[in-house]
Structures are given as C-alpha cells and as structure tokens.
Amino acid sequence: MSEHLLSTPTVAEITGLSQVTLRRWRTTGGGPQFVRLGRAVRYRSDDVNAFVEARTFRSTSEADVLAKEVAVR
Question: How many CB atoms lie within 10 A of CB 32?
Fold first, then answer.
C-alpha cells in the first residue's frame, strides 16, 4: 500500500469542513470513510475525493434531491 493517509486536520483543510464536523460524522456515518490504526484516525485520499465527487452538483435543486434522500435514510 503506497497511498498516503491524511489526518483529520488535513482533511478539514482540504474540504473546508471543521474537525468537529468530521469527528461527528465518524460517529454518525455521514462523512468520508476513514481508517482507524490503533487510536489514530486517518483518511485515504481516494475516499476523500470520492466523498467530494458524490457531493458535486450543477444546481441547487440537484443538491436538494440528495439532501432529501439522505434525510429519508
């Protein structure tokens, strides 16, 4: 495995999200997939990129559809 693992502060900086939001999402399952190595939490860059790509839209109405689908789950 040669992929570089990203820390929570790094992912927060990349995504513009707060570290608190990323921590909260780890408990609720709403954020990017993560890796736990002992007590350390890391993110694979491919997982962060996939998370961002899944939330890329052309219009707000398109984004609203995803928000409704997530709320139903």
Answer: 22
